[in-house]
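re: the backbone from monday

yeah here it is again, tokenized this time
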């Protein structure tokens, strides 16, 4: 019997985190990623995946480690009402059962963390990554902040945590939640806050007190793609993570930086996500004994979210990575059509066209110089 190489956390009830028709955030495309993985490594066979499919909502006391009691009571009341209400200024509606649905996603992250600490192989929680929620309020489609809650749990258990966030939006709930923590290294690549929600995450925001110098923000201009992300990622992330020596790494793997996403204007391709996955997995094996929790996050283009997250699952579990031109399984394509209401892609290859990039080597030098000044640290280029 082979030892599973990846714990995959997905409970079908995660789909109950549902803001209703017309809302851009849906767990359905994360579910499609999981179903695609299930075609490659069926849950009923001893294969490379440990399938975790029964996840209860996180208990109140775990939620209270990050969220305020008054806010939890407010969400609970909203979830007990018949109809929809608003949990924040407009993006994040309450719905019947929203407390349990959001708490179950936290339960998934918590289980993922426990499993990777126990087995020293990565855990993958594609339904999670709700990095905008704050202690006292919902924000940006995020009711409870599952990633902040598990980062906090690891830090409380005397572990140093490296949190890496490649969502198109700045992970403000996590960064400000641990702004003065010396146990949390936070590295966040995102579209410049002057051009995108939530409007934060600048190089000068480097942490405070024990956390000073441990919060690293890498804002990219609209239109930036792989040519901007990858050289910066390779240059900045490995040295920071190696010198911090985390005992566990958490990667928020939002897919809304993908070219063609409806809510952001970055132009990452699947190849960039695949390289980020490989680099982070390698770092986790090198410095953290393989302890790595990868969550989902944003992503509003189902054909990208489903394939990028499924491919991440194959990389994290050392399965053969599907060739771009290889066909997608017909049963999966049928399900995709039923869920999305559009014809599914035929192969793994995402042909969405990128625009000409404005990003130049000088832009990289300028941004790195700014980070070096703010952080008091050098990031030599590899060449
Ligand atoms: Zn996002």
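seq for it, each position gets an aa:
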């Amino acid at each position: 019997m082979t030892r599973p190489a990846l714990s995959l956390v997905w409970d079908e009830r995660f789909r109950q985190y549902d803001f209703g028709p017309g809302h851009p955030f849906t767990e359905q495309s994360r579910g499609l990623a999981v179903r695609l993985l299930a075609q490659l490594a069926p849950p009923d066979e001893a294969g490379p995946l440990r399938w975790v499919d029964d996840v209860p909502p996180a208990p109140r006391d775990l939620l209270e480690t990050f969220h305020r009691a008054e806010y939890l009571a407010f969400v609970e009341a909203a979830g007990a009402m018949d109809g929809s209400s608003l949990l924040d200024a407009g993006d994040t509606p309450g719905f019947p059962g929203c407390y349990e649905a959001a708490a179950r996603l936290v339960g998934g992250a918590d289980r993922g963390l426990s499993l990777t600490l126990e087995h020293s192989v990565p855990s993958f929680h594609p339904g999670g990554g709700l990095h905008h929620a704050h202690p006292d309020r919902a924000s940006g489609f995020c009711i409870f902040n599952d990633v902040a809650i598990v980062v906090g749990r690891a830090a409380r258990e005397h572990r140093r945590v490296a949190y890496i966030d490649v969502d198109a939006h700045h992970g403000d709930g996590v960064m400000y939640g641990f702004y003065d923590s010396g146990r949390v290294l936070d590295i966040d690549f995102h579209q410049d806050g002057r051009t995108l929600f939530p409007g934060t995450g600048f190089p000068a925001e480097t942490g405070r007190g024990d956390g000073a110098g441990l919060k690293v923000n890498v804002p990219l201009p609209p239109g930036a793609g792989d040519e901007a992300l990858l050289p910066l990622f390779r240059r900045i992330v490995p040295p920071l993570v190696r010198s911090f020596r985390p005992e566990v790494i958490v990667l928020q793997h939002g897919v809304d930086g993908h070219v063609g996403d409806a809510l952001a204007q970055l132009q990452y391709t699947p190849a960039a996500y695949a390289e980020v996955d490989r680099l982070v997995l390698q770092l986790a094996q090198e410095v953290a004994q393989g302890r790595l929790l990868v969550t989902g996050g944003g992503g509003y283009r189902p054909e990208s979210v489903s394939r990028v997250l499924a491919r991440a699952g194959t990389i994290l579990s050392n399965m053969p990575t599907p060739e771009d031109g290889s066909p997608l399984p017909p049963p999966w394509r049928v399900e995709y059509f039923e869920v999305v209401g559009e014809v599914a892609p035929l192969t793994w290859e995402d042909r969405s066209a990128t625009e000409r990039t404005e990003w130049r080597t000088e832009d990289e030098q300028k941004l790195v110089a700014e980070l070096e000044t703010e952080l008091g640290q050098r990031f030599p280029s590899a060449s």
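The chain has a mean pLDDT of 96. Residues 167-169, 254, 256, 297-298 surround zinc ion (CB under 6 Å).
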